[in-house]
Specification:
Blueprint lengths: L5 H8 L10 H12 L9 E4 L3 H6 L7 H4 L16 H8 E2 L12 E2 L2 E13 H6 L8 H14 L4 E3 L7 H11 L18 H16 L9 H9 L3 E7 L3 H5 L10 E4 L11 E7 L7 H11 L2 H9 L7 H4 L2 H6 L3 H9 L12 H17 L5 H18 L6
Parallel strand pairs: 5-6
Antiparallel strand pairs: 1-8, 2-3, 4-6, 4-7, 4-8
């Protein structure tokens, strides 16, 4: 979404921008390689939220407060408080409580640019046919999934990710915090196998059993496509679904989809994630990079990107009358953003290993029926604890 804007940025500032585009799966390794050099080739980078604490721990990226405090660089109209709080806290901040939350010691190392939360998509026609209301609670959602599975030929209830590793665990995390669970307690003790975590896993297993066929092999794309092609009555994941649903080239359900916020179990809690923009410490043109980041994430550009089909990062865009007219789903998005949880997963350098190699495998065993939820989760607690101990989290 940024590329069409860069020529205008150059006209306004005189700063030329070269864009290096690559596959998402290659970005992390390429960035680490570049930022480990005495002098790198990148003046600004786009990073995934899960990399922020790693990059700060390795002193790869610059804290941004000195740039914001430079009157010659900082735009007085940029308005930090206009960013959705869950996005700012989740993507920008490092150094506070738990190392990644707002509070004493936290400061921004990046700016949200492509942030996300979650939303419940539903087929209005299917719900009307069976006298169902859009689910507000997990009990209502599970009931509706059972009804759809029993009464709608060739359709499942809720589509879901399920592929072993990151995707299976992402599905588990969606249900964990709404049920009052967490991966770790405040002392970094693994608590995902306690009752709230077991219940979340049981819910996921029922969702898989009442969902469309093939979930254990679904990544994000396959999961969304099942909803777009009419194979599922519900979708519960990233707001990036908004654009594909409207696109007749991708969607068979464009005129039959409604949206609601993530259902409540013991609490409301929705996912946060996405991308941010940061400045490497070994960048050659740091001030120019800051000017670019500030410009791309300004109110004006945030609205332009959203109007072109991108995801808004600012309240001013979400509440903009013109944007609301084009995208009526922003009314639900505003409510969804109010429950966006910056701590729905631990953003620590060790999370990649835990997510992919440990919990993601255990959850896959649950959704395929190879192990019951409690057993699968309890069996990997010692492995997670060993990873955290090795990383020094339990030092006196």
């Amino acid at each position: 979404m940024a590329q069409p804007l860069l020529a205008e940025f150059t006209r306004e500032t005189g700063i030329r921008v070269e864009l290096d585009r690559m596959q998402f799966l290659r970005m992390h390794d390429k960035q680490v390689l570049e930022m480990a050099k005495p002098q790198g080739d990148y003046d600004a980078i786009s990073y995934v939220v899960m990399w922020k604490t790693e990059y700060v721990a390795k002193r790869f990226i610059e804290p941004l407060e000195p740039f914001f405090g430079n009157a010659a660089l900082a735009d007085p109209n940029w308005d930090r408080d206009d960013f959705v709080p869950g996005f700012w806290e989740n993507i920008s901040l490092v150094g506070g409580p738990r190392g990644y939350l707002p509070g004493p010691g936290a400061q921004p190392y990046g700016v949200p640019f492509g942030a996300e939360t979650g939303v419940l998509g539903f087929r209005r026609d299917v719900l009307e046919r069976h006298n169902l209301q859009p689910p507000e609670t997990y009990d209502q959602l599970l009931h509706a999934c059972r009804v759809v599975k029993e009464r709608e030929r060739g359709m499942g209830g809720l589509t879901s990710r399920g592929q072993s590793g990151h995707h299976a665990n992402a599905a588990f995390l969606l249900h964990l915090t709404p049920h009052g669970g967490a991966i770790f307690d405040d002392a970094w003790r693994p608590v995902f196998a306690e009752p709230a975590g077991v219940r979340a896993a049981e819910v996921l297993k029922e969702i898989v059993d009442t969902g469309p066929p093939g979930i254990p092999a679904f990544g994000f794309g396959e999961m969304m496509n099942a909803f777009l092609q009419g194979q599922a009555a519900f979708y519960l994941d990233s707001i990036s679904v908004f654009g594909p649903v409207r696109d007749a080239r991708q969607s068979r359900v464009a005129d039959r989809v409604g949206y609601a916020i993530h259902p409540r179990a013991v609490r409301h809690s929705a996912q946060t994630g996405g991308f941010g923009l940061a400045i490497p410490r070994n960048a050659r043109q740091k001030e120019a990079a800051f000017v670019l980041i500030q410009w791309l994430t300004s109110k004006a550009q945030d609205k332009r990107i959203a109007m072109a089909g991108g995801v808004p990062n600012r309240w001013s865009t979400v509440r903009d009358p013109e944007a609301r007219t084009r995208f009526p789903e922003y009314a639900v998005l505003e409510k969804a953003l109010e429950i966006a949880n910056p701590d729905w997963r631990p953003i620590i350098p060790e999370w990649g290993e835990i997510n992919e190699q440990v919990l993601g495998v255990a959850v896959s065993e649950i959704i395929t029926g190879r192990k019951p939820p409690r057993q699968a989760l309890e069996e990997v607690v010692p492995r997670v604890r060993a990873i955290m101990e090795r990383a020094g989290y339990y030092r006196a």
